[in-house]
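TODO from last week: model Klotho.
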Amino acid sequence: MAVPTGAGVGGEASAAYQTEGGWRQGGKGASIWDTFAHRPSAPAGGDVASDSYNNLFRDAEGLRRLGVSHYRFSLSWARLLPNGTAPVNPAGLAHYSRLLGHLRELGIEPVVTLYHWDLPQGLQDAFGGWASPVLPQLFRDYAELCFRHFGGQVRYWLTIDNPYVVAWHGYGTGQLPPGVRGGPRLGYRAAHHLLQAHAKVWHLYNDHFRLTQRGKVSISLSSHWIKPQRMTEKNIKECQKSLDFVLGWFAKPVFIDGDYPESMRSNLSSLLPEFSEVEKKYVKGTADFFALSFGATLSFQLLDSYMKFQQLESISLRQLLYWISSEYNNPEIFIVENSWFVSGSTKRDDAKYIYYLKKFIMETLKAIRYDGVNVFGYTVWSLLDGFEWHRGYSIRRGLFYVDFQSHDKKLMPKSSVLFYQKLIEKNGFPPLPENQPIEGTFSCGFAWGIVDNYIQVSLMIKPTCCPASSVHHIDKFAG
């Protein structure tokens, strides 16, 4: 089954802090992740990571080899504005200009994330980060710099990656940087400011850059999928509530009516900030497509158990896509992050990763062909192994293997590279003769056995469909 016209597989992704390294190079300022990773008891962070800052040609060659149509990456706010505000760092501008130049030479569409969790430490120190109402305007100023310098080469912009994690675990639980344990109230306040920041940037682009740059802007939202423990009306409503509290928290204001889901407003009372009528109109409609992230780390491992409402998680991407289509008026959906993970000790044989990748891509195709979901693009996470946030280097999610102990950090293709390469080449799963389903039975007397690695096995098989005297002896020894 091939992907329909208008929908494309063939994207790759990475994030600045996870892969760039070079944390003290080129005038870059400190980010909240730098500070968090440099605590005395903290494990290794992203100081070097995959060293993409010093290996732009290496990464571009990996993209060329895969044959991808687009590449999603994030800009480091602290590399462009070391203190979070002016003055601008010329070396940072030059670095991303070179990257965009390589992509243009290869004919690869850039998909650029403005903020992927690495807030400049200066803004956290001066204002309290996203807990402050000052941040939305500062984020708008940063976005304007990016639109002016890079907008001519970028058609797809993502303002913020996974605001759920930024707000809830950055300012509520303190599990992730900046590590503020402010409880639910501060988590909801930070989320409120993230939504305001996103809306400001969308309006900025819409009012001043869209006409000349002809791009699109959205916000990358992550979600899990959940199913009821038992098929009762109460459990089904709890599943809806779970999706409201994670995905709907941000999606409903942006895609429906500028306000939070009713289940949140009725359950959280004074904890949840309120939008004025003017603010609702300002936030509503501030996305040109639905950017979805779905994967192990963001969708499940960082999902607060409280937000499951005692229901069961599921990894059904197809059902989530159908729910988004139904809940948010059939938007155009761009899957901007998807994959699973393998152990950090895995080198180049990543069969488990391929299994999940194939599963998710086939579910996407079924959602398009059978359910009428409007998906127009798919992006694998990630191009190369890197620093995996709270999991550090204990897991790997890249198509290319990186030996983090080596000096040159060469990219070595895993088995998944060939799989994804062929998938892109064929644009899906075309109906090849060897893939056609078959029905039928084997011949009477066909031998069925099992082998043990060390013990000689003697099997006596008496097929029920044959005369009793027809007995087959099979002796095998596996060394």
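Done. The chain has a mean pLDDT of 91.
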